[in-house]
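hey so i finally got around to running the thing on that chain from the lab meeting. sorry it took forever, my laptop kept dying and i had to restart like 3 times. anyway pasting the input first so we r on the same page abt which one it is
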Amino acid sequence: MTETQDAPVRDGQGTLPAIELAGVVKEYRSHGEVVRAVKGIDLAIGEGEFFSLLGPSGCGKTTTMRMIAGFEEPTEGEVFLHGERVTGVPAHRRDVNMVFQSYALFPHMSVFENVAFGLRRKGVERSEIARRVGEMLEIVDLAGREKRRPARLSGGQQQRVALARALVNRPRALLLDEPLGALDLKLRQQMQVELKRIQREVGVTFVYVTHDQSEALTMSDRIAVMNDGRIEQLGSPREVYEHPAGRFVAGFIGTSNLLSGEVTEVAAGRAVIAAGEGQRIVVPLRDGIPVAAGQRIELTVRPEKIEIATRPPADRDSALRGTVTEVVYLGTSTNYNVTTSTGAEVVVFTQNATGAEDIAVRGDGVWLSWDPRYSYLIGAAS
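ok and heres what got predicted. didnt touch it at all, straight out
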């Protein structure tokens, strides 16, 4: 066993993480073959953190959460909760609770009885149950609905009952497996804000599993972007959005334009890609990624960072010509699809702040330009 697996890692202040995974691997047997769902994860989640595991279906995020909860055991590696090794400890003896997408409320019980269920099983006194359930219903904004049955509640209210039931037991961590997946878009967006508020009020560590990038960006303190059983990038929402670690993260988080070309010049910490008369792309170099003249590189730039105009831009280091292939009006913004003279497909988002007409229409020739600091180097082009 490695040193990391023998003892949890403390942060700079000597505080143990709420949850730590050390070299965790999970294997299954399928049709006689070994399938690795999780391929060696090292992860530390801080006390009181809202932490999201984000990735596409089949990336290993739910399996990772189930190993934290104790519903699955790692094939290799160790799981620690608040500094205590819990590998092999059954789920009911781990100081965590889990909320599922289905809510799993008791239909024959009132809201109060649903929330009080776990406390009654623990033998908590009646007066203490009333006090704790009342406090929790206040926090989740369900005070006054204690006597209602789940069937008389909206989807968002049912979700809050499930949250209250999990939190009333005062777990040290709450695990949430895509709990908003059954809600419609508008209610899901409202509940994202509510979940963050509730987490901030109760101060409990939340670990949230989702494939929805907007959920993770809205609520999380940090995000682990997973793919094929591994963590591709770990960081704050701003870090993973503005500075994706590679092609997968750039494409999975939000909308991103992936561009490539041959480097014609490297100087002053920047690489230049020439793309024809008056056209070029400038990208700042990143530590650890070697770039030389003559090499083909790949970079990304977000659609909202690009300006679109029918005239050549003045004093812009990064500028490309193109033709508008589609214009999509979305109310708050307009999206332009542009095919550049180099053959690249680029998406541009513009805010409709003034209510003016479209900058261009389908078939128009346009110029795209942006500040080089918004170009982010991915690496050598494949």
